[in-house]
Design goal:
453 residues; OMP_Chaperone_SurA; Chitinase A, domain 3; Parvulin-like PPIase; four-stranded antiparallel beta sheet; 18% strand
Amino acid sequence: MKVISTIRTPLLALGAFALAVSSTATVPALAQSTAAPAPITPFGLPADVKVFDDGNPNERSATAVVNGYVITGTDIEQRVKLITNASQTNVSEEELQRLRAQVLRNLIDETLKIQAAEAQEIGVQKAQIDQTYNQLAAQNFGQNTEAMDTYLESIGSSANALKRQIEGELAWENLIRRNISPFVNVSAEEVTGVLERLEASRGTEEYRLGEIYMSATAENREAVLQNMNRIVEQLQQGGSFVAYARQFSEASTAIQGGDTDFLRLGTLPGPMAEAVQTMQPGQLVGPLAIPGGFTIIYLIDKRQVLMADPRDAVLSLKQISIELPDGVSDADATAAIERFGNYVQTLSGCADAENAMSAIGASVVANPEIQVRQLPEQLQSILLNMQIGQTTPPFGTAEDGVRVLMLCGRDDPEDAGAPTFQSVMNSIEDERINKRAQRYLRDLRNDAYIEYN
């Protein structure tokens, strides 16, 4: 177990001793002493040092000690920076204080996971941490780990802060793999029953959610609810749901940024099932009281069970657009858009679209293969109800130009088949592993020696 020592370095210890003995009025006389020894001043430093800054940016003051491991204020601040930067919103000082408190709790849990893995000799190797870190750098900085190091430092965090989080996640995976997963069993009869119920529910809707779950007891229920309300406020102001889920959620989906994949209503607690039925993709709801605590849910997507999703249709489109003059008045813009819309209606189909280039100076761009779900939601329902050769209503702005989309072809998706036996078994196993993992973490907390400073 790694322990951050709080003992001074020899240089600082000698300096402190020199300052202490320099004032003979406050030092008691030593027995059989003849004369006070000369102060020890390494590097010829004066005994009375004047410091020009009230604070030390490198100071590492402990805020908690978990089974001997010191969690410092620096650790907390660097992790907070990861969250606030991902949110890209202004965070009030009150919100920062709440974030620091929550991050400290997360760091304590993270430390317990790492310590438990090391105690069972399944700790995470440095090579594994570096590999995951390099993968993140490849995704965001094109294989350039130095660029990611520099970026993290620029936002007030560090590579070590992110690597510590990676180590905690990998350690938890190791613990679950050894202590929980082997003892979760799912029978063939259970899987068969789920498949039969799926077939019976063909055509009903299922939902892909983002979730942020926090457990609550009778004693801390109000405090947890206040925390969840503040998280909702930050998310509504543009905060990153994925970032908040990774840092705060206690569900096993936290490592995936809260993504639950598709779930049926019957698998959701009552308050969640009731809420999602009225939600649209992109909508946020919560906090909702559910058994064991509270949850915030974000509807990523929804579809019908065992049915093809119309938004998986592949379209062939042509975009016809015009530019409006700079500084055009509202009246002139409205008239130009009306003329554009009227002209588009005269086109006899996709083969005729290029004529718009010479007739009205329009730009025409073809895209022969684009999924409906890749388009803005406002256009999806319009395009799904169009026939070949028809165009959408004009859309855009005076600054960015006005355009229409013409439908030139459409390949509808095939009906979705039932999930495989193995995928259903995996889903049931994951749910049971999640519940046992939460109990296991509570046991680690109960057995820990934690001191707060």
